[in-house]
Design a protein that fits this description.
By secondary structure, the chain is an alpha+beta fold. It contains three helices and six strands; from the N terminus they run αααββββββ. It starts with 10 loop residues before the first helix and ends in a 30-residue tail after the last strand.
């Protein structure tokens, strides 16, 4: 008795490999989305304003300051009932050097974010307290996260004009 066996198609091995590839791609997408959603938002603009107004920080880092492009940050943010709190550590870059900034900020109702504390750990190993500012200089509450509407801020206590 002669039995003829035909081979062809992808078989179970090919189908399993395809399913594995789709699952892997989906898993990577979920991780990337999670990282993007975990990036700091609450108070990061306000801490940049406060840092820029502290002479000790601008002397060490230069100006302008910006949150590093790939700063994932580490911390937490909570909001509800018209108020919010944030505690983050983010990476900030200036023309002279970069830094890791740990800060605490909050807001109430329609007021801008207010930074209560900001400590700047510079890449050269030194630490500068930005809020309250070492050596004088003021810290100013920054901008509230964009929630629609617009309005320009005058830079004085973050109030709208």
């Amino acid at each position: 008795m002669n039995v003829e066996v035909k081979r062809g198609g992808c078989g179970c091995g090919g189908c399993l490999a395809s399913l594995f590839s789709v699952g892997l791609t989906a898993g990577i997408g979920i991780v990337v989305l999670g990282v993007l959603l975990a990036m700091p938002r609450g108070g990061s603009d306000a801490v940049l304003v406060a840092m820029a107004q502290c002479p000790a920080v601008t002397a060490a880092m230069g100006s302008p300051l910006r949150v590093s492009k790939w700063s994932m940050g580490c911390g937490e943010e909570s909001s509800g009932g018209g108020s919010g709190n944030a505690q983050w550590t983010i990476s900030v870059q200036g023309p002279k050097q970069g830094a890791s900034v740990s800060y605490a900020a909050s807001y109430l109702a329609n007021e801008p974010w207010d930074v209560q504390r900001a400590v700047v750990s510079l890449d050269d190993g030194t630490t500068v307290t930005a809020v309250p500012c070492e050596g004088g200089g003021g810290s100013v509450p920054g901008t509230k996260p964009h929630r629609g509407g617009g309005g320009e801020r005058d830079g004085k206590a973050g109030k709208r004009r």
